[in-house]
Write a structure and sequence with these properties.
alpha/beta, Rossmann fold, 8 strands, 20% strand
């Protein structure tokens, strides 16, 4: 067999393998995550409060990554990030209502409703409710942190935040989000730590966390530093399982290189959940 034939054969086999793997996954789109009476009560809820579930047909008891898109709480659409497809995890990707049509804390309430839906329904998609990880980029990372740290949002749905297997915010605010500050008439360069800041809810018993940001010199203003401060305060209260990673060479748009770190974190924490 000559080299050209061998290369072509490898390429064909590779494409066949990729296609076969892709064919084992199903994407179920635009599932309302509020109860029907709530969805029907408001046109904007009915339009925006939907999620997609991407799951494999054959596997059982998989981990789930709930993904919230970025966009400053003002723009963006649900999507599956590059690198999260065909990786042996279920992905739940979420739309939520946005500024200026709504104001805080509606964004966080929607995120909590989507996480609650996941806990209550993921077994139908062969996922394990004990292996649910919450993630997202920028505004989505902020929402992941708020839902996982402020217990009040999930309590409304009879869900304990400590049942979350892990939080992996990508370049998310740990101070109060700049759009929320804008809604309160506070300029974007004035940092605030109130009940709408993940930093306000630092606690020892929070879920495992992996904080990822771009390089501190390339990131949005102060984004690495506020995550570093959050990390330090979690250490001060003796949180047992938090990591902080700064991606050199990348700025705020650091999703693609961060996804393998997310997957590694999910794998490590999932293994730890297996009874010995």
């Amino acid at each position: 067999m000559n080299k050209i034939t061998l290369v072509l054969l490898i390429l064909v086999l590779g494409i066949t393998r990729i296609n076969a793997q892709s064919d084992t996954y199903v994407l179920e789109e635009d599932i309302p995550y509020y109860e029907t009476n709530v969805s029907n009560s408001d046109a904007y809820i009915k339009e925006r409060c939907k999620l997609d579930v991407y799951y494999p047909k054959e596997a059982e008891g998989l981990a789930t990554v709930v993904w919230f898109h970025g966009g400053g709480l003002e723009s963006g659409e649900k999507h599956i990030p590059d690198g999260l497809k065909n990786k042996g995890v279920i992905v739940v990707t979420v739309n939520y209502r946005m500024h200026p049509k709504v104001k805080h804390p509606v964004y966080i309430e929607d995120a909590a409703a989507a996480v609650s839906w996941t806990f209550k329904n993921i077994a139908k998609y062969k996922g394990d409710p004990k292996k649910i990880f919450i993630s997202g980029h920028s505004a989505g990372g902020y929402l992941a942190s708020m839902v996982g740290l402020d217990k009040t949002y999930l309590e409304k749905f009879d869900i304990d935040t400590d049942e979350i297997a892990g939080l992996i915010p990508f370049s998310g605010h740990t101070i109060t989000h700049f759009t929320i500050r804008k809604e309160m008439g506070i300029r974007g360069t004035q940092p605030i730590i109130d009940k709408f800041a993940p930093l306000f809810h630092v606690r020892k018993d929070a879920p495992s966390m992996l904080l990822i940001t771009g390089n501190r010199e390339l990131e949005m203003l102060g984004r690495y530093e506020e995550n570093a401060y959050f990390y330090r305060m979690m250490k001060v209260v003796d949180h047992p399982d938090i990591e902080l990673m700064e991606l050199d060479g990348y700025g705020h748009n650091m999703v693609y290189p961060a996804v393998p770190l997310l997957l590694d974190f999910v794998k490590r924490k999932t293994v730890a959940l297996v009874p010995k």
